[in-house]
């Protein structure tokens, strides 16, 4: 628990919804992308820790694991919790290229994850308010409600507020 409410930790390939004061946190973002969708006026936010750009052809039991299904899962859960679809906004970070100098497309997971998140948000008409993607460092994210500030700390200890 924080001074500002509860703290919810989101693991790899997981997601969570927060309503009211509090903080959503995820760590270990290398090639993964942490995507937050929120309704600031409704004080509702969701965070998914996306591992891969596309879900398998069959239905998955872990929709938060994939960019295409995580975005839809977040939207659905936020709206069911009382969020307004027209007020949804997004922030995301991660998508590092952890294997420097690699040219093989299959190993460029970070770049593909970031692009998949960006595309799915655009397809769903959700404005992106800030992002911090790429590079070669892992990240940890904190998203605070009601301020809607996404704090990003890199593996080197650099911190930025988005």
UniProtKB/TrEMBL annotation:
Keywords, comma-separated and alphabetical: Chemotaxis, Hydrolase
Protein name: Probable chemoreceptor glutamine deamidase CheD
E.C. numbers: 3.5.1.44
Catalytic activity from the UniProt record: L-glutaminyl-[protein] + H2O = L-glutamyl-[protein] + NH4(+)
Job description of the protein: Probably deamidates glutamine residues to glutamate on methyl-accepting chemotaxis receptors (MCPs), playing an important role in chemotaxis.
Main enzyme class: hydrolase
Species per Swiss-Prot/TrEMBL record: Alicyclobacillus sendaiensis PA2
Family the entry assigns: Belongs to the CheD family.
Database matches in SUPFAM superfamilies: CNF1/YfiH-like putative cysteine hydrolases
